[in-house]
């Protein structure tokens, strides 16, 4: 297990501790890593430093409040925090809502499967490495899309992103969830 | 999930939704389709994972304010506990959750406006860069032949419609652009209800619909 993988599963443990024990030490660790990144993300999306600071604090507070909704079999902690930050950005900068799909949640007694969780965190890490390995121009274009700088017309259908394995991993988790629901 | 979904969202729509660059009206159609379609749910989650990677690589050179952790903990202390009990679900909803959110209920609560010929519509409140409406089309009724000034997304929620692109049943979504002219016809069976978003007016070819356009507002 390399360093980044170990880190990704450690973030999952932090969120679980926040959910189960309201653990402020775990929260402080998440905060130290993610809050500056959320702030930088919001500034690159066009927020000034004061607004980005305020929104980053709100995003991290939402992480605490919604810890019970995080599903480590379907997303990494970075991905989950990204979606919270994206929605906050749309609300704060565009005064719009971001319609979210209906939640599919495991039953209350469901314990996340360790192997599935680890596999998903690994896929996320591989995707991150693949993104860094893209040619500079293409990587910059994708970053600009995620900073909200491109309209949907400017986003090319063929991005060349290697999404195959992470998609089928998530698809498998959804199939198991559907089986559990019926 | 009775009949399999054949017509899905495109990659550029899913990536635009994941990155938060889609107009709200299109976002509602995407979120509603994804609620019915595990295939597109997994694809969308893949594009959100790219967002996670972009966030992870965001410049850590930006620092938070000195007292920001303490300020955030105060924010948390002031927040009401998240209610963990969801609102009661309708028994067999026609509309998935994101759409019920905008309508204020399921299909039986829509405030329809008659357009003539039994066709009804209800425009939903969103930001104005694109519009989204529910359309109710009696079985067998043809919509006027038209082209598109921009993009049109049409998602079927009940019944079905057919055009040159094929048959669209519950959960199917048609992505139409400027290069497509079509005459959707509601299929026999239950009346067709669909959710349609556009970012430019449709171009009607017949005289009558052209006269009607200002009233319909499509
Ligand atoms: Zn689909
Ligand atoms: Zn059309």
Write out key terms for the chains shown.
heterodimer; A: 182 residues; mainly alpha; Rna Polymerase Sigma Factor, Chain: A; 7 helices; 68% helix; globular; B: 218 residues; alpha+beta; Jelly Rolls; six-stranded antiparallel beta sheet; three-stranded antiparallel beta sheet; 6 helices; 11 strands; 32% helix; 22% strand; binds zinc ion
Describe the structure.
The complex is a heterodimer of chains A (182) and B (218). Chain A is an all-alpha fold. Chain A has helices at residues 3-21, 24-44, 49-65, 77-94, 114-133, 136-146, 164-181. The longest helix of chain A has 21 residues, at 24-44. Chain A starts with a helix and ends with a helix. The model of chain A has no long low-confidence stretch (mean pLDDT 91). With 218 residues, chain B is of the alpha+beta class. Chain B is built from 6 helices and 11 strands. Chain B has a single domain, classed as Jelly Rolls (Sandwich), CATH 2.60.120. Chain B has helices at residues 11-19, 24-36, 38-56, 68-78, 97-103, 207-216, and strands at 113-116, 119-124, 131-137, 146-148, 152-158, 161-163, 166-168, 173-176, 185-186, 192-198, 202-204. The model of chain B has no long low-confidence stretch (mean pLDDT 90). The two termini of chain B are 31 Å apart. In chain B, β1 (113-116) and β2 (119-124) form a beta hairpin. At the A-B interface, α2, α3, α4, α5 and α6 of A face α1, α2, α3, α4 and α5 of B. The complex binds zinc ion (2 copies). One zinc ion is lined by residues 146, 148, 152, 176, 182 of chain B.
**Tally of individual domains of chain A:** 1
| CATH superfamily grouping of chain A | RNA polymerase sigma factor, region 2, helix turn helix motif
Count of DSSP-assigned helices of chain B? 6
Q: Give the full name of the CATH homologous superfamily of chain B.
A: Jelly Rolls
End-to-end C-alpha gap of chain B: 31 Å
Shape of chain A: globular
β-sheet strand percentage of chain A: under 5%
What's the CATH topology name of chain A? Rna Polymerase Sigma Factor, Chain: A
Largest sheet of chain B, if any? 6 strands, antiparallel
Order of strands in the sheet with most strands of chain B: 1-2-3-10-5-8
- What structural class do you assign from the helix and strand content of chain A? mainly alpha
């Amino acid at each position: 297990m390399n360093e980044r993988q170990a880190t990704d599963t450690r973030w999952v443990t932090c969120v679980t501790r926040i959910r189960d024990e309201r653990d402020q030490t775990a929260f402080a660790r998440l905060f130290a890593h993610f809050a500056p990144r959320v702030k930088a993300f919001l500034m690159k999306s066009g927020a000034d430093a004061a607004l980005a600071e305020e929104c980053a604090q709100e995003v991290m507070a939402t992480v605490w409040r919604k810890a019970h909704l995080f599903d480590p079999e379907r997303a990494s902690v970075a991905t989950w925090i990204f979606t919270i930050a994206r929605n906050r950005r749309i609300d704060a900068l565009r005064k719009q809502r971001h319609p979210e799909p209906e939640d599919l949640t495991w039953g209350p007694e469901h314990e996340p499967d360790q192997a599935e969780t680890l596999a998903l965190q690994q896929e996320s890490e591989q995707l991150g490495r693949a993104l860094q390995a893209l040619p500079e121009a293409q990587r910059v274009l994708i970053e600009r899309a995620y900073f909200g700088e491109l309209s949907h017309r400017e986003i090319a259908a063929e991005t060349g992103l290697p999404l195959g394995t992470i998609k089928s991993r998530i698809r498998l988790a959804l199939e198991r969830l559907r089986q559990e629901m019926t | 999930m009775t009949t399999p979904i054949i017509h899905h969202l495109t990659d550029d729509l899913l990536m635009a939704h994941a990155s938060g660059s889609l107009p709200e009206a299109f976002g509602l159609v995407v979120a509603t389709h994804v609620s019915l379609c595990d295939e597109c749910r997994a694809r969308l989650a893949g594009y959100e994972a790219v967002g996670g990677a972009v966030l992870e690589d965001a410049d850590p050179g930006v620092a938070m304010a000195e007292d920001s952790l303490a300020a955030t903990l105060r924010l948390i202390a002031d927040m009401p506990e998240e209610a963990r009990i969801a609102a009661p679900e309708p028994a067999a909803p026609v509309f998935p959750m994101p759409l019920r959110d905008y309508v204020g209920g399921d299909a039986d609560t829509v405030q329809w406006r008659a357009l003539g010929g039994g066709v009804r519509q209800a425009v939903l409140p969103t930001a104005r860069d694109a519009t989204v409406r529910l359309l109710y089309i009696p079985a067998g009724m043809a919509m006027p032949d038209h082209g598109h000034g921009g993009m049109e997304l049409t998602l079927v929620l009940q019944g079905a419609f057919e055009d040159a692109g094929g048959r669209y049943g519950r959960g199917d979504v048609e992505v139409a652009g400027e290069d497509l002219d079509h005459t959707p016809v509601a299929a026999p069976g239950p009346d067709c209800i669909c959710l349609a978003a556009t970012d430019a007016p449709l171009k009607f070819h017949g005289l009558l619909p052209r006269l009607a356009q200002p009233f319909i507002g499509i």
